[in-house]
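User: Sequence for Vesicle transport through interaction with t-SNAREs homolog 1A below. Tokens please.
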Amino acid sequence: MASLVDNYEQQYAVLTADITAKIGRIRVQSGGEKRAFVQDVDRQIEEAQELLEQMELEVRGMNGTARDRLRGRVESHRAELKRLTQEFQIAKKPKDDVTEITVEESWDNNVTEDQRKRLLDASERIERSGRTLQNGYRMALETEEIGSHVLKELHEQRETIQRSRGRLRETDAELGRGSRLLSGMIFRSLQQRIILAGVALVLIIVACIVIYYSFKS
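Assistant: Structure tokens for Vesicle transport through interaction with t-SNAREs homolog 1A:
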């Protein structure tokens, strides 16, 4: 169960970090963009509430010191979410209607010293989670860059292979033409030899006839 609570806490940390960032954007946005951020934060606060409820259910099923320790962490998360909700309510109001209430005053009025320490611990975990996400994003970019480089090299190799195949086809065609030409030359040479042999045979026969009639006469 503790591992499940840790998983919920990681999701909660990422979610609250995103909520905090969007609250900062809401303060400086206006019009349609501000309404879009407000809708996103409303939805994310509901998701955070659901995560806290899931954590509370898991903690209730535990025994011993683990339950007390995790219960304190859940209370710290709930106090943090309450603070974020208050900041969100202030940020989404029109600037003319926002009262001069600082975050520090709201913090002091609603959070005890023990909860403040827990919230600071939670903030550190959120920062670590944020750094982990940034490192993961950086690694993803590096992997994408390496993949793009590999694809480029493969494309160049493919073009080289295609050019080599083209040259091989041209060479094969040249060899085919040379083979046909050589075959024709050999055929003509044999044909000429046969003709010469026939002429020689005819001459021999004629010579024999001439000699025969010469002796006979």
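Residues 97-111 have pLDDT under 50 and may be disordered.
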